[in-house]
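User: Hey, quick favor. My workstation is busy. Could you predict this chain's structure for me?
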Amino acid sequence: MQSLNVQNLGKTNLRRVTAYIDHDLYGELEKLAEADSRSVSQMIAVLVKKAIAEAKVEGKI
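Assistant: No problem, here it is.
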């Protein structure tokens, strides 16, 4: 039987980012995430990936 390592429960290798946004914008973000069956955090990650890919194509980064 495999043992469970409880020290790593809930831990992730992902970086945490804190952002402050307008309440109305957050409401729209929640709607967008729900429409895409994602959490707000997952939706932000998708949007950031898209923005970075676009910036690379445009030669900004």
